[in-house]
## 1
Amino acid sequence: MGVAVPRISAVFPRISAVFPRISAVIPPLRAVVRRIRSVGLIGLVAACAALPEGQEAPRVGLLLDVAESISARSSLELVDPASGASLGGGSFESAIEGRAGLGLVMEVPVGGAWSLRSGVLAKRFRPQDIPGLAFEEAEQLEGLLAARVRGRSREGPQPWAEMRLGWVPETRSRSTFDPGGALATELDLRGDAYAKAGVAAGLEWPLQNRWRLEVGSGYDIPLGSADAETQLALAGLPPVVTRTTIEPRGWTFWIGLTWSP
């Protein structure tokens, strides 16, 4: 007996009811999606053209972050630009508040239950303030490469697990340096590139017309830190250099829709 498959038109209202933030998340990231959408479509066409006869076609899809639980090891140091000597600072454990996340992915089967997935994720977040430094909302693009394996399922959802690597070329955030008194000043922080690694797992439901709905969660750890160095000029004082590092780690939860031609 065949398994009843829900119509995709019936699935969308349920998603919107459970995650009302979808309509608020997509507009701020629409410009980013337009930039990366053409790259994904070109890659899909090229991959389909190179497929051996009978092999499953690649899939493309959108992922939406619905929740995050991220912590970060952060540090702030003041340095004399002339001598390079440290003028003080410290390390702190802080949290990162996820605001929004949207990704475009492409998945290519490589044999059996395995496939390779690559994509670009656009994220908005706000680091928790640390003593002397108050952060504003930050944004970043992130590259993703993952190896996914699917379990067998005769009925209902299909389980999957994956190992993944990420690459963050730059993290930008505006912040306010405030050591006290009337010395507060704004900083434009640009963290350098860093890599991260993680694992993820979830479930996948087949829908009509070659669509699939997935839910997943992943835990990532940094393989480096986002380091930013900015010259700071305070009124009445000689210039100093601020060195800031952030090493984020933690959980991300998402839903996604993928489609194959």
## 2
Amino acid sequence: MITNKFSGRLLLMVLTLTLITGMMIFFTGCNAKEKSTVNIEGPGFDTPEQPVITYMEALKDNDIEKIISTFAVESYCASYDTKAVMEYERFFANNYAIQRPVTSDTDFGNELNKHLRVSTIINNLRQLSLAISYRCSIFFGDSESAVGTFMEGMPVVLRTDIDVSDELTNFLQKSSEIGEIQIGDIIYPTDVGLDSYYSVKFLANRKTWGDCIGANGYRSIGIEFQVEGIDFLLCMDVVRYDGKWFNLMNNGSMGVLLENSGLAGGISYDFEKAAIFTAEIDAIVNNLKEEYTEHSEDFDQTFEEMMDYFSMTELGQ
């Protein structure tokens, strides 16, 4: 009888311990914060043009994840040097702390940097889609002044001869449902007459900025596209990390030189192609080489290495 009671108690203790152990494992598993080993950024591309083309293809397919994967995310955040950026720019604003990474040695800080990076990419995508929708819409009228006002983030007086509520709803819906996109040609700074892009001073500034973010290659690329018969140009800065090219940011250097709105997601709708011939390309290269020789102290590389850093494909490199 004693033996049976002892065995029963022993069995009850074993079952209780098993239950407690199982619950601990369950709740530990539920609360465990497993770190994802899957990168947000893709594997990168072999040429500076490819991430821009893939961005447009993904936009055409309405594939947001693919759009994000064309950008440097982990590589950018891990290489970003906050101190170097501050010393280079010599100013600081609150929105920079929101939109840019901050050098961190903690898991929380690194995860926050990646999510902020994705947030910036998505915000630019939203601005781009709004700008396209606006240009294709009759909602605000067709005056260039109204277009410019909207692109600069200023309120626009709404038309009175149409149903505001319906048209506004349609406009906002269109901005999330971009019409069929026709992808055109790759555009380089020379194609739109941006000679200022090829000054040593400008390239030296870009090289310094590239060093601040740890890139080993930097380029400005544009691509033409058309929506509902309206021509657009998307401007993008791309960077190279470990031999692979990624999108860096919408608009970028080419967009700034074209005086694009900073709220248009990198697109321009008021641009003209320049007639560039081989002789002019040769002159650009020769002038750049002469200027480089005079200011070589601004670079830590040879002229050929500098040309490779900026991957000036349209200049015969």
## 3
Amino acid sequence: MEKKILKIKIRPIKINIPLFFLGFLFFFYYFKKTAIISSSNDMVNMINHIEDCIYFICLIYMVLENKYKPRQILFIGIVGIAFFLIAAVSSYAELLKCLFLVTFAKNVSFEKICRIFAYVLIFLMVITMAMFILGISVSPVQRRNAIALGFNQANAVSVVLMMITFLILATQRISSIKVKLILFTMNLSGYFLSDGRAGFGLAVLGIILTNEKIYKILYKKIVRKSIPFTVLAYTALSLITAYLYPVSKFIQKINLIVTHRIDLNYRNLSLNKLKLLGQKIELFTTDIEYYNPVTDTFSTYNTVDNAYVSGLIQMGIMAMIIVFVINILLTYKIYKKNHPQLLIIQLLILTYGLFESSIFSIYISFVFLYLITKFRIEKIEDKFVIWE
């Protein structure tokens, strides 16, 4: 009897100029999260300068290609000016970068973008683990005895694995059981080593929820009308739980489950007024003593692990309104083009924003690139992993 052999096959991709530069920018974003790079300001600054050069080249390419009609240029210009003002006031430029790269990726294959990004992250994971094993990129054992595997923080491992999972699931309406099993095993291994709970949990949900039964639920009338308002709902949830934290025993118990994130939201909303265009403020501090009236304790550690609260404080009210509107447009396009797997992934990324503050980066919320890219429906097949 002939034995079945596991074969892993990577399909080649025809690289064009936009894909080439998008792949490099994506790589550098995550490469800066490795211990060897993040521990050196000179290395981080060097990569930042390289990124600036790539953005400039992309701008020249867009001008020469001239893919947009005057009305489209006007709309992009208005949004761009708003994001530029927000970046100038708050020094938070992720939304401006997001708009720039979405504009740059016009008519590029979304499927190819996802595949390039997935290959880049797999390559990064391999070389980072190799540097960790060789003692080149080493970070100390972190809380709960988590191992960072060469990254600057242990939770970066689960984020990278979650992103690989989302990128692979995004390319097909239904990924095969074999692919999903490999993705689950990969994320489970990362969880045991790095203890990244949010990334692992959402990756597993992505694997489970990308199926036809869930897709049918997504197309029910009440669900279809509710999903576009996810950003608004999550923002309201974050604000309500924060403001009720001092008086609600139930929310105080939830706060312990989510490792004091609600307490941190309450503290930072109490200390910082919300402004239209945001404000330049460092939310992560360890040198100022804060008092918690609920627990009657003092702490010098302060941060915000919630994208909706940090977005309101840093980027401002106008930025969050624009993000809300853009997410509605994205949701409507996904429904119109019938790519429900992207809807699941976008919802999971927005849910991730309740636990981390980085989702307004295009390198996390990559589904926003779908707004003006091309994407054809793929057949059900093992594209990244082929079993024979």
## 4
Amino acid sequence: MRKTAERGYALIGTDIDPEALGAEHVEHFFNVSADDYPALLNIAQKYKPKAVYSSTDRNIAVAKIQEMLGLPHASMEFAVASEDKIKLRDLASKYDLPLTPGIVPRDFSDAVDFFDGAPNGVVVKVPNLSSSRGIYSAKTPADLRKFYDEAAAYESGLVIEQVVDGICLDLNGMMVGSSFYRMGAVQRAFATANNSFVQSSVISPPNIEDGIVERAFEMFEQVCRKLDVRNSPVKADVIYSMIDDQIYLLEVGPRFHGEIGLTRIIPLSLGIDPWEFYLSSIGEQEVDESKLVATHAPRFVELRASLYGTEKSNYDVNVYHLFVDEVFQEEIVIK
């Protein structure tokens, strides 16, 4: 928001939290839930923004507003699937996307059968939660029973996937017309706390062979083209399996990854500015490809979690330390 305001754009912000981070940068703020589509559409109709963006997986609301205003946008099918892991599995079947092996169990016996064939255990997921909420690691039959019941209590179904022993990458990109632009990759590491996943570090460039990152981006671009994404930012969570040398898709959606990676880690590490490139795409102007030309050689950047809470999601990690070539840069506090 700060960078966008500095470019001279007037910002309109909405959030269910009246003290939302970044609210100080907006010209008009509305205390509205992203699920309140009529209210959001009324706000959009009044102000007629040139662009609409959500920093979290609230892509249906964004697509509805873009559709009403006639703005370029990803398909509603893609937006819905990005918010619902069951719908994403349907989309993967339709377009042959390389998702991690998994099932949508009809009942607990289906879950048991799948668990018995998963050598490293399974991950139980609530389909319509994000930011690592509602994702549980089950390594024993007792874990499976417990987390199956917890996930089922949300009454939105559940997804069970095999645990893949590998390296997690977050990829950013953007489709402009028929052109795909790469906007950096970061590697994420997780710890498990109370059978939930807690982000412990983020590094860039990824500590992995360049050829694997290249393969990941090639797969990412193919996914975007299969989904016919045009004129939209896109993000993907993928995992490289060191066992079978395959790259699997975990999630994909019509937005970028989080603000810290996009505006701090990637620019510091790779010398490119994905957000400035996105801003240059707004309206009728030509995109500024110079924003994706490196201004310096790659530098090793790491974001280290330094304080953990007691709850179950990665929101518990609310203090990070940012390092560039092992030199401390700043402390980042996340609400």
